Structures are given as C-alpha cells and as structure tokens.
Amino acid sequence: MPSLDLLIKLGLFVQPNFLEAEYCEQLLSTVRTTPGQPALVLPTNEQHILSPQDDPEHRQTEQLQLPEATTTTINQKLHQLQPTLVNHFNLSLSGMQPLLFYRYTQGSYFRVHCDSSTQPHAPHFLQARQISIIIFLNSPASDPQPGYYSGGSLIFYGLIDPSRWQSHGFPFPAQAGMLVAFHSNIWHEVQTVLSGERYTLVSWYI
What we know:
single chain; alpha+beta; Jelly Rolls; seven-stranded antiparallel beta sheet; five-stranded antiparallel beta sheet; globular
C-alpha cells in the first residue's frame, strides 16, 4: 500500500478527518437499513446513461438518499474547501454537482472508469466535471468486523509517466472521514467488496 505522502506527490489532494469519525458513525447508524437504488452506469461510448441491468459487468453499486440536513452540512464544508482545491489544482472552479451517497455491499464493485468525458456527444454534466471528490464514511479492515469492510479498494491508474507506468494501479489507504480529490479524467476503480459494507460520498467540482 503506497503512503499518503507518495499519492499526494503524484497529484492527489487528501484531507484526513474532513468529517469526524463520530459524525460518520452517526450518519451510518441512521441509513444502514435504508433500501438503495442501483447506481447508473456510463457505457463505453459515453453518449447515454444505462441502468445496471443493461451493463451488470461494469458496476454493482447502490445509491442511497442522504438526509437533507446532512446534505446541507456537507455541501457547506465542500464549498469552503473549493478555494483550497483551486490553488492545489491550479484550476478555475465555478461550483459543484449534487452530492451522491453510495453503498457497496459484499460482491459490489465499479470497474475501471473515469468521471468525465471530452466526447462531443457525451452528457453535459460529464463534460463539465473537473475535480472528483470521494469521502469515505467507514474504514477497511483485513478481517471482517462490524462497521468495517474488506476488499473494496480504490485504485488509481495513470498517476505516473512515462506510458509504461500508465497501467500501474495505486491503492488508496482509505480511512473513515477522509476526503480525496483528483482530476476527473484520472482512471480509477473500486475493487470487489469481500465482506461488510463500504459507504462513500462523492461529488464533482465544475
């Protein structure tokens, strides 16, 4: 597992404890039994959105509804973070897309993908994305434990040039409450969750 210092040197922005661990635990205690909806899938041609039933090999993830008060609180923190990201990535950012809440149960995954598209016929919301953010709400563990998950690693690709390193994957050392931000055109994946449930919040700065 690479160190956070190495991943930061390779261009990722990382903020440990963006959310307090206690806050994450309280949030998850209210939503663990909430039914989820299958998350949508972007096909290879990037021209329209599919349901997971149309492309089950690419993504198996549930999307949950966040409580309104929680959405407001976290959006405020993300807006406060925006100037820091502008400086870090040397970009002009004008706002954010809606915050989404994902649950990966045992057997869930999201194959290698990127969050944005430069294809002229791609949906506008994909073309607009500049910076992706992921907030981890619980931590991985090597052995099954209540509240933790195993597997489900976030893997980044293409962080190192030259091209012979483009296919080298860097696992991200996730922890509850941690935020990672990266260019939306970076390829990444979520590996299969082996046990437990993995919870994250995601959004995109435009």
